[in-house]
Amino acid sequence: MKEQSMAELHVVPLGTKTTGVSHYVAAVIDTIKQAQDIKYQLTPMGTIIQGPLDRIFELTQKVHEVPFTMGAQRVLTSISIDDRRDKLGTMEGKMKSVESKLKS
Amino acid sequence: MKEQSMAELHVVPLGTKTTGVSHYVAAVIDTIKQAQDIKYQLTPMGTIIQGPLDRIFELTQKVHEVPFTMGAQRVLTSISIDDRRDKLGTMEGKMKSVESKLKS
Amino acid sequence: MKEQSMAELHVVPLGTKTTGVSHYVAAVIDTIKQAQDIKYQLTPMGTIIQGPLDRIFELTQKVHEVPFTMGAQRVLTSISIDDRRDKLGTMEGKMKSVESKLKS
Amino acid sequence: MKEQSMAELHVVPLGTKTTGVSHYVAAVIDTIKQAQDIKYQLTPMGTIIQGPLDRIFELTQKVHEVPFTMGAQRVLTSISIDDRRDKLGTMEGKMKSVESKLKS
């Protein structure tokens, strides 16, 4: 497997008429699903993506536009990258590494 | 069910000898597991917790101390709270709301 | 000076109808100004606070309520704490430490 | 002035052995200073940048590499973008908008 980085992505529109923003989030996920070389996991607070670093940046820039195409006038997008180069970082690997060290 | 808020928690020690920090994260999770009134979900990038707001703050303050008790000298802790008061916010509810709107 | 931690605070209301949220932010700052033992610095992206750790948590919980008292129904609050225990961490100290290492 | 977005940038190396990371941060700032079309402001908790969106992404990808070139093996980089398209968003404008609404 090629070099993999992991990142957490949040896309939030401001000034929407309703407090619920799940249709914006769903459109973001639909865009992530179509991205090449990207694995993703939806969580209740954001989306975790894994893939080559340049693909992650490309995708972030793309999903940032999604709420604007749906009428939003202000969007907060954040991406938090965890990039480890001394070993292959994968979502499964990180989870296992923590779980194996839990007390019970 | 009582008022529930959701939050995403990250605890990172700096200046550790190794790039791997999973034993710190595991100790944080062990502490979260013991917290009253808190549901949690481990993700590859952090931990999502759900519960009454005062319990969330109490727990954040508690887990922030965990890496120090293990020898860390500098800790970055972040908590991102999503607090919705027009309807009950739960981890399952948020996931379902997004998933029901996905194209496929 | 007593133990000091530093933190960055963001408070964002969702579903506010208008994209501008500066009156919410101003009310948050007014609350921070009244906090005991807390130094603060407003930035274009958030507010940085410095003080004893328990005061920081107390204040975060307090400012999180501010947009709700102004009519918001959903609020995203995040606090990122940088807590260093091998030396006194202050806003001025951190800035000077970086600036002294800049090339020009 | 062309379209401007604002973003907050954090670059943190893990596993650095020393708790102080200001020489990494200084190298990041030196790189930001050389970026075309980018205004920046150093804060005690990160760096705020302003410029066209594609320049912001380009710069983020560039600074993320800086700690690796200095020997770091794991880097956490986060970028939080605030992009408002109903009016020109500038660092001065945002600050003034909040300050004008403060009680005193």
Written account of the structure:
The structure is a homotetramer of 104-residue chains. In chain A, α1 packs antiparallel against α2. In chain A, a hairpin with a 2-residue loop joins β2 and β3. A four-stranded antiparallel sheet of chain A has the order 2-3-1-4, covered by helices on one side. The first copy, chain A, is of the alpha+beta class. Chain A starts with a strand and ends in a 5-residue tail after the last helix. Chain A contains three helices and four strands. The A-D interface holds A 53-54, 57, 60-61, 64, 68, 73-86 and D 53-54, 57, 60-61, 64, 68, 73-86.
Oligomer: homotetramer
Mean pLDDT of chain A: 95
Termini separation of chain A: 32 Å
* Total number of helices of chain A: 3
Largest interface, Cβ cutoff 8 Å: C-D, 33 and 34 residues
Class by SSE composition of chain A: alpha+beta
Low-confidence stretches of chain A: none
Strand order, main sheet of chain A: write it out.
Answer: 2-3-1-4
Q: What gyration radius of chain A follows from the Cα positions, in whole Å?
A: 15 Å
Major beta sheet summary of chain A? 4 strands, antiparallel
Element string of chain A (H = helix, E = strand):
EHEEHEH
The amount of beta strand of chain A, in percent, is 25-35%
Main features:
homotetramer, 104 residues, alpha+beta, four-stranded antiparallel beta sheet, 4 strands, 37% helix, 31% strand
